Structures are given as C-alpha cells and as structure tokens.
Amino acid sequence: MNTDAVLAVDEVMLNFSPASLQILNVILAVVMFSIAIDLKPSDFKTLAKAPKPLLTGLASQFLLLPSLTFAFVWITAPQPSIALGLMLVAACPGGNVSNFITHRARGNVALSVSMTAFSTVGAIFLTPLNIAFWGSLYPPTRQILRETSLDPLSVAITVGVLLVLPLCLGILLNLKKPDLTSRLRTPLQYVSMGIFFAFIVLALAANWGLFLQYAGVVAGLVLAHNALALGAGFLLASVVGLSSFNRRAITIETGIQNSGLGLILIFGFFSGLGGMAIVAAFWGIWHLISGITLASLWRRKDPA
C-alpha cells in the first residue's frame, strides 16, 4: 500500500458540481419510484401477519451491519475518511438493485421489495442516527463529524425527500392506476437503473485519475466489508430459522447498499471528502459484482 496515498486521501475532495448533485437527486428519486410501483398496501398487511422475516431483515440492515462495521473499522484502523465512508455505507438502506438480484437468486422478491420500502422509511431516522452514533464512538471519525457539523435533521429531510416521497407516490399510483403501473414497471426499472449507472460512470470519469490513484487504498477494505455484510445477513437469517427462500432475500438486501444515497450524503454534507466518496463509489461497483455472482450460484439450486 502506498503510504503517501493513505495519508493524502483524507485531504482529497472529489469534483462534483451542484448541478451534478441535483441530477443525481432526481435520478435516485426516479429509481425509488420505479421500485415503489411494485408495491400495494396489501403487501404490507401480508407482512404484518407474518413479520418475522421482515423484522429479521431490518435488524440485519440497521443493527447488525452498523455494529459489525464499527468492529471492523476498530480492528483494521483505516484512515478516518475511509472509516467514516464504511460507516456511512453501512448506515444506508438497501440498494435499488437488490430486488432484481434477489429475483435472479430465486429468493423472496416480495420480501426484498418490502424490506427496501421499510428500510427506506426507517432510513429517515436510522441513517443519520447510525452515522452520528457509530461515527462519534471512533475518535478519528468523531473529529470529522465535529468539523462538518453534521445535522441529523438535515440528513433525515434529504432521505425523506429523495426516497420516501417517491416511494409513497409510487404506491399511490399503483393503487389508483394498476393498469398503468403494470405497463410502466419493467421498462421504467431498466431505464432508471441504466440512467443511474451511466451517471455514476460519467461522475467517476470526471474524477478518474483520483479514483484510480486511491482505489487501491480502499479496495481490500470494501471487498472485506461487503463480504461481512452478506455474511451477516445470511447468518442472522439462519440463526432465527428462516427458510432458504427468505434467507436469500435478507442476505442480498443486507449486502447491497444504497451507495447512490451514500454519494449524495457525502457530497451534500461532507463536501465530497475523498476517502468517503471513493469508498461509496467502489462499493457501488463491487456490490453489483458480488451480488450477481452470489445470485448466479444460488440460481442453480431451488430454495425449496
């Protein structure tokens, strides 16, 4: 590892214009809307009758993963901005592609979509709470939080506008116009995800030199952290006795994080702090590779 790169990564600020941030906000809202039109109020009633898989998944997402991430950071002792980037990713709700990957893995897609919905709503409170709580317990990241004066209420408002509002609008449209949403569902999901990934690629291209220079510093940590997230979801679902059908959904939902939201929070509240942004960007690439690979392996075997 290049010692100079490690020392400098806390000082690097990635180039991301206010206009680019606004575009990313809109894209993320459209992606969330495309997921929400899969949901109906009856889906939530069904889960209320048998909440164990959903509660297990949410515990894995917001309790187990952040606490394991704190232990991981304490043991590996990365540079402060990298450590806070790992904590922030762990504090985000499930990723937008988790539902697609769960489908590929022959897991419980209804559970995956519902987990995305509930974790998105819960993220209004739990994402800023986890960032502030775990970040303040680790002295190097505590200093960054003090310098940025992170306001949990502002983070909550950002998460609410970007994720919860389009979620509610999507559910409402599906309730009022089911024929329309059935026609929109598949093309909108593919188009929105395509635009999202194209935008991330273009954003990385603007910082490609910096990304290549520092990616090696975070690569091993991100790979290990993602494996920890997938393993945590699988282990908790196994311990509580869930079926393979549900276990696959929870594993993927825990291991696929909303790195797009992470980038928005990093550029909106931390001025694009280098280590944090590179962690979130690398996560956004790697969790797709690991998730799709795991889904391909699981797809060969019927969960029943």
Structural features, described:
With 304 residues, this protein is an all-alpha fold. It has one domain (3-299): Na+/H+ antiporter like fold (Up-down Bundle), CATH 1.20.1530.20. It contains 14 helices and no strands. It has helices at residues 3-8, 18-36, 41-49, 52-76, 80-91, 98-104, 109-137, 139-148, 152-176, 178-206, 208-239, 244-255, 259-269, 274-299. Helix 6 packs antiparallel against helix 12 (244-255) and helix 9 runs antiparallel to helix 10. It starts with a helix and ends in a 5-residue tail after the last helix.
- How many whole angstroms does the radius of gyration measure? 18 Å
Count the domains: 1
What level of helicity do the residues show? over 70%
SS strand fraction:
under 5%
Question: Which second-level CATH architecture applies?
Answer: Up-down Bundle
Extended strand count:
0
Tally of DSSP helical segments: 14
State the name of the first-level CATH class.
Answer: Mainly Alpha
Low-pLDDT stretches: 1-7
- Globally, the shape reads globular
What would a concise description of this structure say?
The chain has 304 residues and is mainly α. Helices cover 83% and strands 0% of the residues.
What secondary-structure arrangement, pairings included, does this model have?
Elements: H1 3-8, H2 18-36, H3 41-49, H4 52-76, H5 80-91, H6 98-104, H7 109-137, H8 139-148, H9 152-176, H10 178-206, H11 208-239, H12 244-255, H13 259-269, H14 274-299
Helix pairs in contact: 2-9, 2-10, 2-13, 4-5, 4-7, 4-11, 4-12, 5-7, 5-14, 6-7, 6-12, 6-14, 7-8, 7-9, 7-12, 9-10, 11-12, 11-14, 13-14
